[in-house]
Design brief:
single chain; 4-stranded antiparallel sheet; 3 helices; methylation
């Protein structure tokens, strides 16, 4: 009886040892495998970031266009036809126009206004993301993407 118990015990122990050696041999990844996976993830994320660049610029340009259209709407609410200078109260340092100017500044551009003397017309303009083109809106309803700076309160195409 003792011999039989000892035999069963030895068999169970040898089975457990085999299981442990098999499990430890296949559990986990090697350092090389982990480094390869990290390198692949890095390459894929770099490709995604490069692909998103133009989309970001388009989004910034869209925001600038929207802000300029809002600025034109605000300027039209300030319009006073009875005054000698109907657009004389356009001021980029206070009120809603300052908020719009600040928002355009966060898009890496600057809101600029070109009033004609004596402020009978205006043109708002700001650089787009390419750094060479302006988006321009003016009091006569013109809307242009141009490389020319507005003159006398009128966008030039």
């Amino acid at each position: 009886m003792y011999k039989m118990v000892e035999f069963i015990y030895v068999k169970i122990m040898s089975i457990n040892n085999k299981k442990n050696s098999v499990v430890s041999a296949i559990s986990g990844f090697t350092l090389i495998e982990m480094l390869v996976v990290i390198a692949i993830i890095g390459i894929l994320s770099a490709a995604v970031l490069v692909a998103l660049g133009p989309s970001r610029n388009k989004a910034k340009d869209s925001r600038i266009v929207s802000d300029l259209q809002q600025a034109r709407a605000i300027a039209e609410t300030l319009y006073n036809p009875a005054s000698a200078s109907p657009y004389g109260s356009i001021n980029l340092t206070t009120g809603q126009l300052k908020t719009i100017a600040d928002d355009i500044l966060t898009q890496n551009s600057t809101l600029q206004v070109n009033p004609a003397s004596p402020s009978t017309a205006y043109a708002f303009y700001a650089f787009l993301s390419d750094g060479t083109t302006y988006y321009c809106v003016d009091s006569s309803g013109n809307v242009f993407t141009t490389i020319k700076v507005p003159a006398s309160g009128v966008c030039q195409n």
